[in-house]
Amino acid sequence: MTNFKYKKIINICIILFILIGIMGVYLNKTMYNKLVVIEDKEQVLQYSSNSIPVKIDFYSKRRGKVTISSSNILKEFWSIVDSMPRSKNFYNSKIENSSNEITGTIYYLDGKKGTLYLNNNLRINDIYYGGDDSSAYTNRLRNYINNIFCTPSVLSELINDKNKITIVDIDNNTKKCGSNDKTLIKNKVMELQKITDNKKLEKAISDKGNLNYHIRIYREDLVTTPDNSSEYEKNSYDIISIDIYENDYVVIRDYGDEIVNSFYMQGNLNDLCNNLFNQ
Questions:
Q1: What CATH number labels 50-149?
Q2: Which residue ranges traverse the bilayer (predicted)?
């Protein structure tokens, strides 16, 4: 009798194992060997492409236009924007016009465009970033964009017949540049190489040597008159200084910015300044 009970229990266990095996095979075929289609796939892709910028055109009244399309620069730019608080007073947020304002057009992966406006606050499309206590965020973003603007090509465009250009030597003697002088300076500035590598920048700071000349660009400050027309106010200048050191290093400083940063470049402007100053 006892043997019969054990046999019965063993048979039940075998039947259970067989059933579990059959269920496992069935679930494997139905769940893992079946193509699953996500119904909202296109919505996900559309949302993704809407949020991915592939190019940004920046425009500054004081510097002109510059375009960025490098994925690394775009990623870093967007990382700074994402770190900024959104304005709580969305509908009361105001951005005042000034010569330091930066506007932009954002091009997205799906072909759509967005707008950017930076002054005391940041606005991208209909979203405001910043607020009353967020100057540190906007200054960080502005400095990053100013660094993008500080290139030999953008700098050379400011050396034109409209802007006053002077060369100042170490004894504070000044030479006012004419049209031909400006052309020579512009061509040389185009040959400069911006220093972005940290090790090269450290070397430039320590090894630049003595200051020999300043090339000063006096850009007249664009103001808006009460009738909303734009004109240049006399005797109101933005000064960009190109400081030229003996060991073929150049430091760019824009004194029109609230925070004056130094941007290092490499190239020989000493010979040109010496020739122009002593001709």
A1: 2.60.40
A2: 9-27
Scan for tokens 């700098």, then name that residue: 155
CB-facing half-sphere around the CA of 58: CA atoms within 13 A: 24
- The model's pLDDT over 66-100, given as tens digits with 9 standing for 90+, comes to 999 999 999 999 898 888 887 655 544 455 555 67
122-124 and 262-266 beta bridge pairing: unpaired
Cα–Cα distance measured from residue 130 to residue 113, given in angstroms and rounded to the nearest whole number: 22
Compute the distance between CA of residue 271 and CA of residue 277 in angstroms, rounded to an integer: 10
Neighbours of 27 (CB within 10 A): 10
Which residues of the chain does CATH 2.60.40 include?
50-149
Q: What is the mean pLDDT of the chain?
A: 79
Q: What is the CATH number of domain 152-277?
A: 3.30.1490
What does the chain come to in residues? 279
How far apart (Å, rounded) are the C-alpha atoms in residues 247 and 270?
Answer: 9
Rounded-to-integer distance, Cα 88 and Cα 118, Å: 17
